[in-house]
């Protein structure tokens, strides 16, 4: 769900520079791998439903409670990271003249690179 949007963001940030593209793809792949390992580790831990005691109900068994606990854990992590990014990442607003000039320069640069190919 998040991987295509993250990869598109990284491609937009790299803006056609091969070294940046290579570095962002390596970092992205590394964090995908770390996420896979952590997901597997949390799925293999059989006592996870004890941490979130609300997930165990009369109608659901241990596996259902374990799955709900994994969902709660991932939602909590996603909300925490999104909040931290919103609080700590500061945007520098561009003045209208600078943003127009920057957009024109970017379009010109892209068209020059396309003409070379």
From TrEMBL:
Example GO molecular function: sucrose:proton symporter activity
Keyword Transmembrane on entry: yes
Protein name (Swiss-Prot/TrEMBL): Uncharacterized protein
Organism phylogeny: Eukaryota, Viridiplantae, Streptophyta, Embryophyta, Tracheophyta
Region (Disordered) location: 94-117
GO CC, any one term: plasma membrane
Transmembrane segment boundaries: 28-51, 71-89
Membrane topology recorded in Swiss-Prot or TrEMBL: Multi-pass membrane protein
Listed Basic and acidic residues bias regions: 107-117
Localization annotation: Membrane
Keyword field: Membrane, Sugar transport, Symport, Transmembrane, Transmembrane helix, Transport
């Amino acid at each position: 769900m998040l991987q295509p949007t993250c990869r598109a963001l990284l491609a937009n940030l790299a803006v056609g520079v091969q070294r940046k593209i290579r570095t962002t793809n390596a970092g992205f792949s590394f964090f995908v791998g770390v996420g896979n390992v952590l997901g597997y580790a949390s799925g293999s831990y059989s006592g996870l439903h004890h941490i979130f005691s609300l997930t165990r109900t009369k109608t659901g068994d241990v596996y259902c409670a374990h799955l709900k606990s994994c969902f709660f854990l991932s939602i909590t992590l996603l909300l925490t990271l999104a909040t931290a990014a919103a609080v700590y990442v500061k945007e520098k607003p561009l003045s209208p003249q600078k943003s127009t000039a920057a957009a024109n320069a970017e379009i010109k640069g892209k068209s020059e690179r396309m003409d070379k190919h």
